[in-house]
Amino acid sequence: MTSEPPFSAHRNRRELAYRVPFVVERDDAPRYRLRNVSVEAAHWVTVRLVGPGLLPAVAPCRVPPGSALEVEVLGSDLSRSSSLQVSWFRPGGGQYLWRVTF
């Protein structure tokens, strides 16, 4: 009796890891900037607040290299109870998700 290896075992082992294209600029908290520091545009970027607090609605957008998406997050003690969930698509169509803590 043989079993199939998990799906992840079928991936191309030569595929390089993908670096998150954003850095978080926190100098003007509660305004945060997600700056795209990669060489490719991030498409359909969405931001969601996970946990208590207030994040005004941000329409999905394209963030070209060098540009930033600015969001304002309000709440008490965000660092203990909340995080941002950022999702985007790469030009090739792959979807990615990244969680940012305060």
Number of strands: 7
The whole-number mean of residue pLDDT values reads: 90
In DSSP terms, counting alpha (H) and pi (I) runs of 4 or more, how many helices?
1
Give the uncertain stretches in residue-range form: none
Estimated structural class: mainly beta
Helix content: under 10%
Which percent range describes the beta-strand content?
A: 35-45%
State the shape: globular
Can you put this structure into words, describing what you see?
The chain has 102 residues and is mostly beta strands. It has one helix at 78-81; strands at 22-25, 31-36, 42-50, 61-63, 68-72, 83-89, 95-101. A 4-stranded antiparallel beta sheet has the order 4-3-6-7. The chain starts with 21 loop residues before the first strand and ends with a strand. The mean pLDDT is 90.
Structure summarized in a few sentences:
With 102 residues, the chain is mainly β. Helices cover 4% and strands 40% of the residues. The protein has a 4-stranded antiparallel sheet. Strands 1-2-5 form a 3-stranded antiparallel sheet, with no helix packed on it.
